[in-house]
Amino acid sequence: CQDEAACNYNADATDSDDSCTYAEEGYDCDGNCLNDMDGDGVCDEFEVAGCQDATACNYNADATDEDGSCTYAEEGYDCDGNCLNDADGDGVCDEFEIEGCTDAEACNYDADATDDDGSCTYAEEGYDCEGNCLNDADGDGVCDEFEVAGCTDAGACNYSSDATDDDGSCTYAEEGYDCDGNCLNDADADGTCDEFEVAGCTDATACNYDASATDDDGSCLQEDECGVCGGDGIADGACDCDGNGPDAGYDCDGNCLNDAD
Q1: CB 208 within 8 A of CB 219
Q2: How confident is the model over 103-130, as pLDDT tens digits?
Q3: Residue 6 and residue 18: Cα distance in Å, rounded?
Q4: Global pTM?
Q5: Cα–Cα distances in Å, from 108 out to 99, 102, 103?
Q6: Distance from C-alpha of 219 to C-alpha of 231, rounded to nearest angstrom
C-alpha cells in the first residue's frame, strides 16, 4: 500500500497492490475516536443524546449521552398512567383508595371516598338529615304525614295522648260529674251530687212531703186528729185550732173530717 493515508501504508512499497485499508470515519487506525470529549469511547460525532436510565418511561437504549430528559411514572402508576395495583378495577390505585360513603343521597356522603364501606346513613322517612320535617304545614314539629287528628285537651273526656292536631272533637263532663257520669262529690253516696242535693221531707206519707227533696232533713210532719199538718199531736179529741177547740168531727174551718158521701 503506497497511500500514506492508509492504515497499512508501506513506505518501502514500490508497487501499489490495492491492499490499502483505512480507519472508519471518526476513528484512527487503532479504532480510537478522533474526537471524544467526554472520553466515553463514543466518538463525538456518533454520540446520541437521550435518557439512559432503564427505569425511566422514556429510556433510550440507543442513547450514549445522558441529557437529563428522563421522565418517570407517578407513584403507584406505570408509564401509561395505569395503576400498578387496582384490585377492584375502578381505576383508583389500591394505595390511593379512600373508604367511606359514596352514595350522594346519604346523609354522610363523602365526595372524596372512592370505595364504599357500607357506612352510609339516611334520613328517616319524612325527615331531612338534620331531623327536620320535609313537610310541616302548621310548624308544630310533627310532619304532615304523621299528624294524628283528635282531642288534645288533657282535661277532656275523650283526650287522646296520640293526637297531634286538635280537631275540635273534645267533649267534657257535666258540672259536678266525672266523664263516666259519676258525682265528683257525694258524701251520702245516694247518687245525687252534694252540690245538687235538696233538703226537705222525703217521706211520702208526711203531710209536708217534698217530691223534689233528695236529703231528708227531719222536717217531716204528720196530720193530727184535727187534720192539721203538724198539730199538737195530742190524742185528746180536742183540735188545737188557734187555741179554740172546734166542734167534734169538724176541722178548724168547720169542714167534716169524715163525710164519705
Answers
A1: yes
A2: 999 999 999 999 999 999 999 999 999 9
A3: 11
A4: 0.44
A5: 12, 9, 8
A6: 14
